């Protein structure tokens, strides 16, 4: 290879003293830029900084966008009502690429560079699991909105919390009786081949067994798979219910190919809406889902019995009665999960107020104050419904919705009770040192 | 399900993969064969084809077949034009230097991908198939559209082969591939041939994407898998060999379909990679390639 342009010719270096001086001056200028302004009354009026670990790119990007919208709406509401402890809240967003490695880096960046008070907002379970050690090392309270069981399993560390959305183990346990009674007893599971899918793989069989049902086959599919027909022959013919939970951009293909495979002569379908978040259920090929049932954390479509709090929340986030962005019916939200961002921020607010939180030196106090919480009442701060919180396992427990697709809409047909989803704690974070 | 129908389903799935793969890999193979440029951004041209297909079908509306046919014509043309501009602005200025063009096309990959994320968004968006006929076999149902993809791909491959072997354009391209300096000495506008070949390669990827998009939706990250598989196919088949590309695509597609159905998808990928390693060790020029001079 010839070096025509002299890239590697050091003798042609053009770095003069003048250039070097310019560079130094620019560096100094950066140091004086607005981000580095020191507040004169540091503690009292400096904003509380929340580091938002967002899935802006990668397979979680559709979720990331709606998590950001919901977070922005909640922060706006909190700030309008006077902020936290009289201080405004500022959200700093970093993209983790829906990647565990980058997730950990982002947490480190929040701790050392942005010096945020907490880190918040992660959804994908492998990113949470990958980032949790970094949060623990930096003693950085890490509030995730992930739905996975990893926080409640007490296998992470004392700095990780999930106070805004119920975990999968609890969801499954509370819905299993309905599945066995209304859909069928012989269940085939289809789930993504990573952490979140394993929660379903591990907790459905015992929950169903307790109801007299049985999981007769379990089919794991790599999360990056783009074609699914080849997996369907593994579904046993005697299957009464296909229990599906899929994530990633190919979920529509999954449903369409299932439709082509079975036609109208299909087993019952019970799915987690994760399979269709941010996707219009009236998309071509999804007619096949008509009459099937889905889990929803918070209903996508406005329901007849929606509370005032739910209506106010939907208006604040900017979604219409069909769960799409106001003004753009094609921009469907991730309604079943994103409420968790809203509720988590209000939990953080409550815990910071209880702790008399002043700054990063009070992070340990914040952890203890969060652990001391026990209940969240339904209302504007918790529009999805009432919740209990177990400070030992850092996990909240709320109601779940089972919705049926009827006439191109999801209609809630069953709501579980909080008690249905409670289980024996597997450990205790509060015994760990801070 | 019994073994027979199971195998049939696996073979059908494998053939659909092969059909799309053959078109995509052919584009990559042509660009390398003629220009000696390893186009890492090839998968992004594939993605652009799918994204444009979504945009065009959405803009046109009406019967799905109408929008689809329009997309099948317009999307590859736009992608070809973009590729041509990229070739003029970037590759030509690097004098088609093999190392520099790899780095440049990696840059193109990220630029195209991030532009798609910015303007198209992170969602996977569906395109309605031109017709939705479901073939009912005694054991399972199968999408009629998928079968038509196989047929369409076979037609397009034949057409490309005819262009390459029976027309003046093909002759000029083959001459440039064989020895670009001599070709230039004989008055062949090598620069224009390079531009045309790069655009054609991108267009083949775009057509493959338009064909596949009613099956799997348009998404800004969808270019990665086709890129990887295309490289595998091109290495096994032999760079710049049309016949080798098609044979290798069918081989990889079918083995992927059958192995992943009877064993596991991971094993299918392992075997494909192993095959590449074996070919590189024992027949570096590929199954149908000729030794480079």
TrEMBL record, chain A:
Gene3D superfamilies membership: 3.40.50.2300
Keywords in alphabetical order: Amino-acid transport, Signal, Transport
The UniProt record lists the keyword Transmembrane: no
InterPro entries, per database record: BCAA_transport, Leu-bd, Peripla_BP_I, TAT_signal
Cited PROSITE patterns: TAT
Domain Leucine-binding protein: 47-400
Protein's GO biological process: amino acid transport
Family: Belongs to the leucine-binding protein family.
Protein name: Branched-chain amino acid ABC transporter, periplasmic amino acid-binding protein
From TrEMBL, chain B:
GO molecular function, one term: transmembrane transporter activity
Protein's cellular compartments: Cell membrane
Chief location: membrane
Sorted UniProt keywords: Amino-acid transport, Cell membrane, Membrane, Transmembrane, Transmembrane helix, Transport
Organism this protein belongs to: Mesorhizobium ciceri
GO BP terms: amino acid transport
Sequence intervals crossing the membrane: 6-33, 45-62, 68-90, 102-122, 142-164, 193-215, 227-254, 266-283
Descriptive protein name: Branched-chain amino acid ABC transporter permease
Family: Belongs to the binding-protein-dependent transport system permease family. LivHM subfamily.
Membrane association type: Multi-pass membrane protein
InterPro entries registered for this protein in UniProt: ABC_transp_permease, BCAA_transport_permease
Pfam families registered for this protein in UniProt: BPD_transp_2
A GO-annotated cellular component: plasma membrane
Taxonomy, superkingdom: Bacteria
């Amino acid at each position: 290879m010839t070096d025509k342009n002299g890239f590697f010719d050091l003798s042609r270096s053009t770095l003069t003293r003048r250039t070097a001086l310019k560079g130094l001056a620019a560096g100094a200028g950066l140091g004086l830029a607005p981000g580095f302004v020191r507040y004169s009354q540091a503690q009292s009026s400096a904003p509380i900084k929340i580091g938002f670990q967002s899935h802006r790119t990668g397979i979680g990007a559709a979720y990331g966008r709606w998590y950001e919208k919901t977070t922005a709406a909640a922060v706006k509401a909190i700030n309008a009502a006077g902020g936290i402890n009289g201080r405004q809240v500022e959200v700093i967003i970093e993209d983790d690429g829906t990647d565990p490695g980058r997730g950990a880096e982002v947490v480190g960046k929040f701790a050392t560079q942005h010096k945020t008070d907490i880190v918040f907002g992660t959804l994908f379970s492998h990113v949470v699991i990958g980032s949790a050690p970094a949060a623990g090392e930096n003693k950085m309270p890490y509030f995730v909105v992930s739905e996975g069981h990893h926080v409640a399993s007490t296998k992470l560390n004392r700095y990780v919390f999930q106070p805004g959305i119920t975990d999968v183990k609890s969801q499954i346990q509370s819905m299993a009786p309905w599945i066995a009674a209304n859909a069928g007893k012989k269940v085939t599971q289809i789930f993504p081949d990573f952490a979140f899918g394993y929660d379903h793989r591990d907790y459905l069989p015992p929950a169903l067994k307790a109801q007299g049902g049985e999981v007769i086959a379990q089919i794991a599919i790599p999360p990056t798979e783009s074609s699914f027909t080849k997996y369907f022959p593994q579904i046993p013919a005697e299957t009464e219910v296909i229990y599906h939970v899929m994530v990633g951009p190919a979920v529509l293909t999954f449903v369409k190919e299932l439709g082509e495979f079975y036609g109208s002569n299909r087993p019952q379908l019970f799915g987690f809406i994760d399979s269709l978040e941010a996707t219009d259920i009236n998309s071509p090929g999804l007619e096949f889902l008509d009459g099937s049932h889905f889990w929803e954390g918070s209903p996508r479509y406005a329901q007849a019995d929606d509370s005032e709090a739910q209506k106010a929340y939907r208006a604040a986030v900017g979604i219409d009665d069909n769960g799409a962005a106001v003004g753009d019916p094609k921009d469907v939200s991730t309604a079943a999960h994103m409420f968790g961002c809203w509720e988590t921020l209000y939990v953080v607010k409550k815990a910071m107020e209880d702790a008399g939180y002043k700054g990063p030196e009070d992070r340990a106090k914040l952890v203890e104050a969060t652990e001391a919480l026990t209940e969240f009442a339904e209302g504007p701060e918790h529009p999805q419904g009432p919740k209990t919180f177990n400070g030992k396992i850092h996990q909240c427990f709320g109601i779940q919705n089972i919705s049926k697709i009827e006439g191109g809409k999801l209609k809630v047909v069953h709501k579980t009770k909080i008690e249905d989803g409670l289980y024996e704690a597997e450990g205790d974070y509060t015994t760990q040192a801070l | 399900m019994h073994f027979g129908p199971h195998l049939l389903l696996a073979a059908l799935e494998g053939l659909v993969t092969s059909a799309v793969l053959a078109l995509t890999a052919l584009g990559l193979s042509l660009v390398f064969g003629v220009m000696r440029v390893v186009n890492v951004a090839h998968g992004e041209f594939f993605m652009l084809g799918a994204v444009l297909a979504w945009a065009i079908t959405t803009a046109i509306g009406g019967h799905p077949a109408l929008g689809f046919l329009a997309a099948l014509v317009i999307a590859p043309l736009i992608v070809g034009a973009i590729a041509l501009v990229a070739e003029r602005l970037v590759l030509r200025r690097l004098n088609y230097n093999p190392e520099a063009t790899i780095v440049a096309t990696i840059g193109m990959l990220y630029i195209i991908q991030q532009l798609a994320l910015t303007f198209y968004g992170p969602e996977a968006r569906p395109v309605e198939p031109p017709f939705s006929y479901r073939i009912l076999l005694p054991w399972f149902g199968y999408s009629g559209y998928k079968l038509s993809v196989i047929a369409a791909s076979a037609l397009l491959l034949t057409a490309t082969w005819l262009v390459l072997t029976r027309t003046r354009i093909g002759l000029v391209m083959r001459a440039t591939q064989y020895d670009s300096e001599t070709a230039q000495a004989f008055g062949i506008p090598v620069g224009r041939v390079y531009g045309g070949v790069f655009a054609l390669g991108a267009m083949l990827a775009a057509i493959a994407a338009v064909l596949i998009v009613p099956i799997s939706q348009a998404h800004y990250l969808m270019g990665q898998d086709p890129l990887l598989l295309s490289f595998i196919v091109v290495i096994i088949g032999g760079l710049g060999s049309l016949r080798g590309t098609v044979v290798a695509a069918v081989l990889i597609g079918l083995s992927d379909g059958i192995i992943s159905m009877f064993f596991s998808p991971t094993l299918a990928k392992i075997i494909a990679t192993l095959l590449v390693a074996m070919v590189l060790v024992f027949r570096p020029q590929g199954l149908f390639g000729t030794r480079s001079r």
